[in-house]
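Recap from last week: sequence in, structure out.
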Amino acid sequence: MQLLHYIKSYTNLSEKGIKNTVELLNEDCTIPFISRYRKERTGNLDEVQMGEIVKFKEQFEALEKRKKAILKSLEEQDVLTYELKLKVQKTSNLISLEDIYLPFKKKRKTKAETARNNGLEPLAKIIMSQNANDIESIALKYLSAVKTVEEALEGARHIISEWINERTDIRNNLRYQLERYATINTKVIKTKKDDEKAQKFEAYFDWSESLNKIPSHRLLAILRAEKEGFIRVKIEIDNHRALTKIEDRIIRSNNVCADQLELAIDDAYKRLLFPAISNEILSQAKEKADESAILVFAKNLKQLLLGAPLGEKTILAIDPGFRSGCKLVCLDAQGNLTHNETIYPHAPQNDSIGAIKKINSLVDAYKIEAIAIGNGTASRETEQLIRKIRFNTDVQVFVVSEAGASIYSASKIARDEFPNYDVTVRGAISIGRRLADPLAELVKIDAKSIGVGQYQHDVDQTKLKQSLDTVVESCVNTIGVNINTASESLLSYVSGIGPKLAENIVTYRDKNGAFISRKDIKKVTRLGNKAFEQGAGFLRIKNAKNPLDDSAVHPESYAIVTKMAKDEQKKVEELIGNSETLKKIKLEKYVSSTVGLPTLTDIISELEKPGIDPRETAKVFTFNQNIRTINDVKEGQLLPGIINNITNFGCFVDIGIKESGLIHISNLSDTFVKDVNAIVSLHQQIIVKVLEVDVARKRIQLKLHK
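Predicted structure tokens:
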């Protein structure tokens, strides 16, 4: 099977687009680069479509690798016929491939193998032929290695059971039944029923649901409950129906052989077929649930990373606390630490007057434009304190998510950035920098620690990492990176750069000062032509001699822009931002064998607004100041909130207390909602209506208020 045909059968994309994308990928081009700068070759495919091509390319390569291994094994066993080789080569999925290989697979010592060693295979063949009427008399001839007729017949049945298990048609029919009719059933383990940790799984103590209809989050919850030892899980179908289907394929007589075959079929089904195929089907269901959960996490992460930045402002960041105090840090407009200290406005010290004086003086001394307050312990109390202060200038106050800040503050990245400060100072710095630029700061944290997914620790960790890394890479390259200020972490996600070149860029910058042109990037150790081609368009240089160096126009297209400017009798810098002139340019004049209208259209769009940040600007938000704990929340209240997590079954909303409220998908709209992301987005500021408050279980049910 050809790679292009395989990918096309799954994606329905154009053959030309697939072919050229695969070629570019094989040339070590990245998806961000291909989708942005090679639109002519791909037919304008986007990053999602290219991601699908990558996914099925990897699947195909894994299939081909397995085929080679199987063919080699069959050859070594001297059982590879022309027909068998053709069958293996034509197979288009791993499950069918493994079914073909099953009869030849080296097994641990089985009951069937023991029976063969006892010379009972001829007896098994006689029973399968279904022509004998006195099978017990025939079995007497096979008592050399076994003592009784029943032992001989049992051994023969074990061989027949293995034959039945290895039949592709029978396995596929059982798969069909399990895929369509299987239910997943759970029972609580009685000794664990009253365990405190088991209570969150109480709904699944006695549960039954169709396996092909169960939502991904519920399946993952059930499997976690089983893993933690609170419940038992069984996959079930109508066994009588399944056995009848197998009997109809095998039994064609009405004699004593049929009786033996019924016993063999029952044994094959219960001991071999059902355990293997039901595990396979459950594994596939888990894989689909993983994909769904990973997709939810990826969508949330993208929205979080592309969250509204405040921009280059002087910021006072506060990591709130009670007994240990509130850690204060002052950051300049570039995010550099200029001052840090601790105040103790809350219990047990209660020095609110001293804290207010200190904050006021720092705001004046460091010309603070915004205050960022972490949303953890003592956040509401600290926010209320800040809002009491009358500043001499207009200071915006923001509450910022602390999710993952503690992971960052103890990390090697944080230690390298601030070797002379402890974790509390680093945590406060991270809070302030998150307000200024969420993307630049969050890339330093393992995405799994940010806490915007569902069951992220239960899904395939390799697939999760690949997906999240792809999201981060996409976001970083969508926004672009200032090469002179970006951290090593941020640079490592730029197309074609990676961790080692990012380290080399920072080393060069520290030694030689700021880059003054994109050409200088080539001076970085080991940054060759390929890396430059892949990354240059995403790296920005502010105040460069060539204004295009601070745009998404790729250096390979500078000559085109220069020609456009010359034709319009203007300098390049006079062309930038000049919408009137840009709209008059006839793009067809600049089409060549390598540059088409898609690229030229992108160039004009970029020249209109070079290097513009597509993200919104951060907005001030205030929680209801009368709501401090769950005890203050009452049914019927309308409250302001911020969406802090999105799942397939709804979204969680921060209403300013420790417990987030849940808007179930059914409460997002008065009409049917299939996709939560179609209604709301992460960090969206909304008004919610309180439907129910369960103080004991610390649960709040909400409804989106229009």
